[in-house]
């Protein structure tokens, strides 16, 4: 049998699912079963999560010692910038009623210090800090050059305002014997910061490398003298410096200052007893109505002892459950009405 | 300012630099594209705003973002819009080229040469052949027909369906051959180009003589030559100067209301619309197999307004009807023929019909004629005298001209398609009208040639609504045959036919109910003496100087009396496919349909009934035909009063009274009970559209379910549309097929052209085109509805996601001393809208469907949210913004609460700025992705791909941007090195993201679930219930139920024009060969063309007679 070839009209649109808007698709329905299921499971998940988080947070210990007012004389001294070379120390005794077990982290905490100001955040030169070109100060306004046009190292507002109090924790074993609690000044930073973002110029002698530059105006000593004992912690690689340079998101923040070196006496953590903090008070805060304190804290898997996340989860879970019961009730109530409507 | 053109003298004519015949609807060329397009684009507020922003951002002191965050989107927007504009313009170029490159024969240097249309110049003589389009506005010089006559169809131009006749002035009609024409050097001085279609005045200077020229001598561009072998014309106006182009108005830039609301964010909106336009082009269900024409979205900017249309203005001829008349039924001596019954005696439906009647017995039958009822032919064959007389009448009483090129190959030149259908019917049933001379008509009656002596033609006109012939048969008996409107003829019948009359009336009502156009047929025997005496009086009357018209009318009236009823014919003005169904569906969708036609009132009303716009269930159909301002005002007032009276009596009288006193006429009228329709004539419309009455007219018209405006000019069509646009905040759509619809198509918000016709002017001016009126339902109810829905969903989501994104900065401002520090990395800001969150919402905007397409046809009410603009109005806008703000609050404060006091699991600080930025950004991307997941009602593979893909791309880019490699190369640009892996490795961060997502999304889910339960809208109900389907099917059936019974109205409609009777009796339109058969009696009157012209200007709505009067001298 001979069949004549079927000539399709050339302008006939393709019969493809896409072009005819007939793509196979899943239609999204908010059916009662699905919605309520999602609500109930979300509620259970949130409640469980909240309880776990609260329990974890409660298992940590933290003490905070605010030394803004205690060291009032030093604070007063620092209000006048011309006293920058006068040293001021103050000692704050405190009592640890129970021992703090495990890894102990020491932080300094600043109140009312806006590290997130727009121009402050940008006032830094990553090019310089990665050691490639220490004279690259382009982005560092207003701390690019000193008055005699020497580039500042490290340049910029962040570096210039670096926290420079020295905090030493002492354990008073008895009224006469005081031992210094050993603190590690390493491992305070992200690996990428220490090994990628911050690099010293290649040479062995840092001072030579930094020749032809000058220190930031607020600094008492140049960058290559931050830690003369440990070359791995000197120059741009200084942990305190790197920690400071990672600008905080909010005006109140704490930054890691040291980790307890768990040896000898402190192998399990900090034993209970009397301690004191010896602080070399250099960083002025009263000028901007700020405050500062020292925080000692232990950690769990979810960080410190903040209850916020746990509470938020608990509340969310509870509300979700309440809502799902309410929705179920409404749905059942209306269902009868609807059935009669459609069956009429 | 007058125009001079000399024939065959290009050099002379070039001096005046008249426009060439090249038309241009495109906007750009290659050189001007870039500057003009950019200039246009920067007229958009959004683009200028971005440009301004860019300039500001180039100044580092005042900018917190780098310049590329603005330039990337801006350039993208400009490029995509430019590409789109270029494509649009390319197609305009293409169609311009097509028209400009049409071939025409031009007389150059004494030789006929093929030339493209665009090369035709003013002063050229061109030759046109039968069925060709007239290339420019021409002065008719000569034609193949006697006396320089030629016939044209002007449907393209003014929508009138009957053929028009044009005549060359006598001096030029001699110029039949090329050698004479080449020597012709007449000069025409005439009016400058204008848009008046029915008016032309000029003078021809030739051989030191002056000859007045009028519209009667002109062939306008857009007309088609019919029934004329060839003609020659002198180009007077070309290209843009032609009356057609002068009527088409300027291309306006159409904008949708959503555009006006928000002209920012143009880019994605454009992309989505482009997608929707392609869906229209690709739609197989809008492809017409017969004409092989797909639907076409010619502009890509109006799609969502297709979902909001409230008023449709439709042309009649060619749009609602096919302009084909079919002899469908007849009633002869009390018996109705034409219905087909199946075995069980039920009326057979279309598609189950048996074979058509076999006319093979008749060698002269027209093969194309189809009739389905065999009993009629049987009646003819058995020699039923009534049936024979019936068809004899049809073969004698008409003004059709016949042409027989070869023996037996008959061609009829009918002035109106109605008559053509009737004479063809008679021909097939064995009463073949063969030829005529001014004094005779030759008919082959059942194979025998019989020549009747034609004594008189009592011509048709709009007042008489009938025509008669008086013939003497070979036996010498004189008989008058008359056909006409039932209302007129029934009063003039002999009282003895009362019983027959009643049966015939029943049939007539039945036919009228089916929307058929009916005519009543009757005859009367005249005795010799009476006729002689009557003919004498007629001659006297026709020679009278004063009130000749009236005298003739009364003499005609006298003889057309006491006639014997023969029967009735019913002609079907064939509708386009599916027109009544489409109109019914669109009416159910709350769309008001107005028919604007150049055709006559009877014809228009008839079509109104046959396409179910007018029904017998209607309380009343108001007809406004007043000729003066006062009359029209009075008629409108009465209509309103009636409507209010009835609603007062139907409804609660008290409340209506109260409303009335608050003088809110419109609201009262919109609430009237009962269905009304308004029919208004062109000349009344002219008054109704005057500034002090337009509001009155609009209120009256809008209170009616259906409005029909007849005998309107193209300009009036546009004015009516403009009026509705002006006072009603409603989207209007105009649909038409001819050049006479161009102005209305351009005026309406949306213009639709019927493609696949001969003329393409309407299509060129339109925004959408397809070849069948019925596709309108799919365009509006499916494509339009979806477009609107998608666009609204898109906009809602778009505002939501941007507010969620932006407002975080506001909250952050409280914590960063309002220093304009951004929460996010600048790359995130750049990429958020164009990469991370664009494609999923784009996929939703292009593909989303709430209910399947069949449902939106089944439930036309689903269209209403669009008309009321329920899906995206200020309220919805604020809801979206509120949701965005709510999200932004949680998006900021939950991470803030967590970060403020938390540390990482390695003891280092968590709350550094960069980690916070990454956390907020990540939760934002996740939340808005989940949200689009919820908003997407129709998950195709593409949606899956885009949503999951966007998330994947986000993380991929995040890790890439934070990689060591990029930092090593550009340390100052990529400051976030190491952030992604350090931050996203923290369980706390993920817990924060999860919590944020839950609290942002759950309330939305709850809200939607509750709305679905408590306040479901129709689309929800349709979506969630299958039970409703059954109910709807019943409604569907109701809608399709055709017809009704037993109302008293006339189905009379006849697209005919006066003057042809006189033309025939004068013999002027007959070839000499046929005239030679009879003695050519020179009649003193050469007034037929004058009377043709006069009738024409009388019936035309605009008074333009003055200019058409011939100059004497």
UniProtKB/TrEMBL annotation, chain A:
Question: What GO biological process, any one, is recorded here?
Answer: phospholipid translocation
Q: Write down the superkingdom of origin.
A: Eukaryota
Pfam families for this protein = CDC50 (PF03381)
> Could you say which residues form the signal peptide?
none
Q: Which keywords appear in this protein's UniProt record, sorted alphabetically?
A: Glycoprotein, Membrane, Transmembrane, Transmembrane helix
What parts of the sequence cross the membrane? Answer: 35-57, 307-334
Asked if the Swiss-Prot or TrEMBL record annotates the protein with the keyword Nucleotide-binding, the reply is no
Give the main localization category.
Answer: membrane
Localization annotation: Membrane
List cellular component terms (GO).
endoplasmic reticulum; Golgi apparatus; plasma membrane
Q: Which family does it belong to?
A: Belongs to the CDC50/LEM3 family.
Q: What is this protein called?
A: Cell cycle control protein
What is the organism field in this record?
Rhinopithecus bieti (Black snub-nosed monkey)
From TrEMBL, chain B:
Gene name per UniProt: ATP8B2
Q: Which UniProt keywords apply?
A: ATP-binding, Lipid transport, Magnesium, Membrane, Metal-binding, Nucleotide-binding, Translocase, Transmembrane, Transmembrane helix, Transport
Identify which residues the record assigns to the active site. 315 (4-aspartylphosphate intermediate)
Q: Give an example GO molecular function.
A: phosphatidylcholine flippase activity
UniProt name for this protein = Phospholipid-transporting ATPase
* Named cofactor requirement(s): Mg(2+)
Q: Which EC number applies?
A: 7.6.2.1
InterPro entries in the cross-refs: ATPase_P-typ_cyto_dom_N, ATPase_P-typ_P_site, ATPase_P-typ_TM_dom_sf, ATPase_P-typ_transduc_dom_A_sf, HAD-like_sf, HAD_sf, P-type_ATPase_IV, P-type_ATPase_N
Q: Where does ATP bind?
A: 315-317, 419, 460, 483, 517, 597-599, 711, 717, 740-741
Q: Which organism is it from?
A: Rhinopithecus bieti (Black snub-nosed monkey)
What's the catalysed reaction?
ATP + H2O + phospholipidSide 1 = ADP + phosphate + phospholipidSide 2
Biased-composition ranges for Low complexity? 1099-1113
Membrane topology (UniProt): Multi-pass membrane protein
